[in-house]
Structures are given as structure tokens and as C-alpha cells.
Write a structure and sequence with these properties.
alpha/beta, Rossmann fold, eight-stranded mixed beta sheet, two-stranded antiparallel ribbon, 10 strands
């Protein structure tokens, strides 16, 4: 039963990634990105030794403001949002607030308005079990764990498994088939 649920969830993610980000009213770029963010918790293992992570509500911090933050806020608490793991959204205004909240976070989305702060943000969460995500195409090359990319009018993502390992996170291999690019030092770089 659990395997069947995961197959259905993965299939849903694949459909979302395959939908064009533009041209369809029901599949805007922000809607696709939000759906991916809401479902990521199902494919990440937080190896922290405590009860945080997939068994309890995941705290998704959003630093900076953009239209995706509004989409995420509107989805928060909506039943049937696609995630089997409850998600709560924490809006973070600046790096000082991030420093105070970083121990509560499981995931952190860095919006385009906070892009200049990325090096300081990554330094603040370095070594902590926080899945960092951005829509900056160079984010994973800068030490972030995941970034969204537009490829042929579709939303895909890149994953830096080395950064995930450094943060104590294990990303399910079931997610790799959806990735455009996977960075892993000991196996080289993969472009599915």
C-alpha cells in the first residue's frame, strides 16, 4: 500500500514537471513550483535523530518576497495540497531573523528578491538539516541543494547531492528521474 501511494505521488510530481509553465491557466509557473515544494518533504529524509522531518509538520521558511511566496501562503493548510506531510510556512524578513529561526526550519526557499543575500544565507544554514531551494539557476553551483530551472517552457530542477549530504539530508533516488542535473562529486555530474 505504501509503495503504491509513493508511485502515485511520484507520478503526480512527474505530471507537474511535464506541464508547461506558461500557456495553461491551471499550471502557472508558481503553481508548479509550489506543488513541487509541497511534495519535496515526501522525498527527503532528515537524519537528525529527533522527531523533526517527515513524521511531523515540515516548516518551510521563505526569505524574501515574490509571487511564489504568495502562492505558498495560499496553499498552506489546504487539505489535499498533494503532500502527505503537513507543511507550515514561515515568512522570514531578513538574515537576522533567519539566524533566530534556522533551527525550526526543514526547508528554506530563497526568493529572487533575496538573491543577493544567498552567500550569507547558505553560511547560516551550513551543516544544518535544511533543504535549501531557489529559482536561481546557479544556486546549486554555489552550494545550495536545489534550484528550479525553466527548460523548454517546463519547470525542472537541479540537485546538489554533495550539499544535501553536508546538511545531513538524504534525497530519495525516486526524485532523480525528474531532475535536469544532479551534482555528486564521487560520481561526476549527471544530466538526465
Amino acid at each position: 500500500m505504501r509503495n503504491r501511494a509513493m508511485v502515485l505521488l511520484l507520478s503526480g510530481l512527474m505530471v507537474l514537471c511535464a506541464l508547461p509553465a506558461r500557456g495553461r491557466e491551471f499550471a502557472t509557473e508558481d503553481a508548479v513550483k509550489a506543488a513541487i515544494l509541497y511534495n519535496l518533504g515526501n522525498f527527503v529524509n532528515w537524519q537528525t535523530g529527533d522527531e523533526s522531518g517527515p513524521n511531523n509538520a515540515i516548516v518551510l521558511g521563505v526569505i524574501g518576497e515574490d509571487s511564489l511566496q504568495k502562492r505558498l501562503a495560499s496553499m498552506a493548510g489546504v487539505k489535499g495540497n498533494g503532500s502527505r506531510v503537513p507543511i507550515s510556512i514561515l515568512a522570514i524578513k531578513n538574515v537576522r531573523e533567519l539566524k533566530n529561526q534556522r533551527d525550526r526550519l526543514h526547508m528554506l526557499y530563497i526568493s529572487s528578491s533575496a538573491r543577493k543575500m544567498t552567500p550569507g544565507i547558505l553560511e547560516l544554514v551550513a551543516g544544518r538539516p535544511v533543504l535549501t531551494i531557489s529559482d536561481d539557476e546557479e544556486f546549486v553551483d554555489s552550494g545550495g541543494i536545489m534550484n528550479f530551472v525553466r527548460e523548454n517552457s517546463r519547470i525542472r530542477f537541479d540537485v546538489n547531492l554533495d550539499a544535501a549530504d553536508d546538511s545531513g539530508l538524504k534525497i530519495s533516488a525516486r526524485l532523480f528521474g525528474l531532475a535536469r542535473r544532479i551534482i555528486k562529486k564521487n560520481t561526476g555530474e549527471k544530466s538526465p
